[in-house]
Amino acid sequence: MKRSITSLVMMALLAISLVSLFVACEKKDDQIVIGANIYTFADNFMNGVMKPELESYAAGKGVRIEIVDSEGQQAKLNDQVDVFITRKVDVLVINLVDPAAAGTIIAKAKAAGIPLVLFNKEATERGVMASYDYVWYVGTNSAESGIIQGQMMVADWRANPTWDRNADGIVQYVLLKGEPGHPDAEARTVESVRAFVDAGLQVEQLALEADPNWSTQHGNDKMAAWLTSSFGNRIELVICNNDGMAFGAINALKAAGVSLPIYGVDALDQALTHIADGEMNGTVLNDGVNQSRAALDLAINAAMGLSVTEGTRWTLSTDGSKAVRVPYLPVTPSNYQEFRN
Amino acid sequence: MSRGNRIKLSAMGKEQWKELFVKNAIYLVILAIIIFIIVREPAFLSLNVFRNILTQSAVRLILAFGVGGIIITQGTDLSLGRMVGFAAVITGSLLQRADYASRFYPDLSPLPLFVPLLISCAVIAFFSAINGFVVAKFKIHPFLATLGMMITLYGILSIYFASGAPGPQPIGGFDPRYTEFVIGETLGVPNLVIYAVIVSIVVWVLWNKTTFGKNLYAVGGNPEAAKVSGVNVTKTIVLVYVMAGVLYGIGGFLEAARIGSANNGTGYGYELDAIAACVVGGISFSGGIGKVSGAITGVLLFTIISYGMTFIGMEQYYQYIIKGVIIVAAVALDAKKYLKKT
After folding, report:
1. Coil, strand or helix: which one is B262?
2. Which of A246, A253, B59, B253 lies in the 20 to 30 Å Cα band around B306?
3. With an 8 Å Cβ cutoff, are A181 and B263 in contact?
4. In whole angstroms, what separates CA B315 from the centre of its chain?
5. What domains can be seen in chain A, in order of their start residue?
6. How many angstroms separate the CA atoms of A39 and A57, rounded?
7. Nearest CB to B311: which of A21, A87, A98?
């Protein structure tokens, strides 16, 4: 008994040591090395769209990129940045976990003299981008996704008078918000609804739920609960600030045998399938592919000491945010096929 | 490297060598991983890496001491992460720069640093004491008692977090005095490391040189026997949870400044890291066994491994496999030791 447990343990440990030997990749000396992270691999969009594109685009450019999982913990990201700095990567490409912690990361990069490209989550603290010459941001204009989503919803609402189920002329909606404090969540929540108001339509918010993980499970659970609530039969529209939560809500709608107009943001492959199946009415392409490319284009230029946008199709914003903003695109039942891979 | 074996090196036979090898197998394998990392990337062997590993271990160690004491009493603490998060949010909310745009308390004048520290320790010790009381009085398994606390506390901390002037926004823009106090250096040594050393000494004294410490091991080893021999079991258990609460309070205070921000998600999952470090360091779930040096070793090992594997650029999915296997392997060895004892 004693011997067998011991040998089993030793063999297991030997096996992992060997695995680690094989998986650790070779590094060429003259190659640009990029230290990057994803705020959590549990995020469908970040792990499913941006990470693969970062890897394949870097491979195409002949640079080495190491992408670590910050597991949704800013503390973990801080530690990972320390590791990247001590192993002297040429440039950092960082997806903040907590946008308020940008100052700490920028200070670390500055102290080490390593250029830094932040992407997808923009620093919230004012003036922090000005504290270091070699920090830039690649993302989107948060408000734009909400505006586009809102315009799609308004056009569809007008085209489908039956959507006003109680015929009171008011849009009764529920909203799945995503992470409180995340600039995208906050901006989309405001802008998508504002589109109705701007178009002269009255709105009534029946419920709003936030979820720090933007998760499918959350979308499902909240939608299921709403459908059984006192206002369940008054819901006319489901607004989701990302596709992941919309998938959950669609699942709950199907389980309850209810069909409601539902909109997301991100245009994940699964969303295109839902649109094709008539289960989803629209989404907004958060162009992760081009955000990944822009982040790497800037990072590689910075590592080579060039002006960051040199030789690229990106332009830096002129408002002091040192940002490249990749545009959003509307995805509807009439154009979704263009976005299929 | 001490897992309780005190064998004289001079008089060791084959069997004893084997036993020594088995008892320290986990350390030998980890040593092998470290050597492997150094061979791959010799730059790993640098003062900066060493400093970083110690700095990154500091807060984890303080938290591991908290839950380590509880594990010695055959308990566990799933609410650790939320407690740390609450402490981080409390201290963060009380220590923002006066000129920061979105302050939690817009009109708060600068406080001496020890005030938020004491408040956070007191609040967390209170909630942790409830854990201890529920466990000791109602004989609820600590896993369930602290699971309940973990969920409840998330609600309470989120309410507090959302109650600030700017709403539920991540709390940043800390007072430079606070940041400097935590991430600064004294005579070239990172302050965090100094605090961890001080806490280690205090915990060592509490565990080894006081009546509380004696009772802790007695209750952990055999609660019935301890009761018969006149130890106040309830009081001992509540005290160990209070001590854990104070340590979490300190940990949260340090963590907020180390990260540079705090929100209601801060600390999420820390309990598992801390418990894993304790177990790998030989603090046994069967109770009554565990040393300060064990917690230190466990925490350092995990930091070294995660630092080293990122350092050599290993794909993260493999890192999870290695960490997971190490935890189970360590527990397997631990359980074997326990079986032999009885």
Report:
1. strand
2. B253
3. yes
4. 26
5. 25-140+288-325 (3.40.50.2300), 143-286 (3.40.50.2300)
6. 19
7. A87
The residue of chain B nearest to residue A19, with distances taken between CA atoms, is B318
Residue in A closest to B179 by C-alpha:
A104
Q: Cβ contact (<8 Å) for B266 and A74?
A: yes
Contacts of B316-323 spanning 24+ positions with Cβ under 8 A: B316/A41, B316/A67, B316/A68, B316/A69, B318/A19, B318/A20, B318/A23, B321/A16, B321/A19, B322/A16, B322/A19, B322/A20, B322/B33, B323/B276
The CATH label, of 1.10.3470, 2.40.10, 1.20.1530, 1.10.490, for the domain at B24-38+45-341 is 1.10.3470
CA distances from B257 to A166, A201, B177 (A): 53, 47, 10
- Asked whether A269 and A341 are in contact (CB, 8 A), the reply is yes
A166 within 8 A of A202, measured Cβ to Cβ: no
Complex ipTM value: 0.72
Q: What pLDDT is attached to residue B1? A: 42
Residue B3 pLDDT: 46
Query: Quick check: B146 pLDDT over 90?
Result: yes
CB neighbours of residue B108 within 10 Å = 14
Contact B36 A73 (CB under 8 A): no
Does the pLDDT value for residue A105 go beyond 70? yes
From CA B342, how far away is CA A181, in angstroms rounded? 54
Taking the CA of residue A293 as centre, how many other CA atoms within 13 Å lie in the half-sphere pointing to its CB?
10
Check A68 against B322: CB less than 8 A apart.
Answer: no
Q: Which of A 197-216 lie inside 8 A of B, CB atoms?
A: 210, 212
Could you give the percent of chain B with pLDDT greater than 90?
58
Tell me which residues of chain A, numbers 225 to 264, contact chain B at a CB-CB cutoff of 8 Å.
none
Backbone angles phi, psi at B261, to 5 degrees: -165, 165
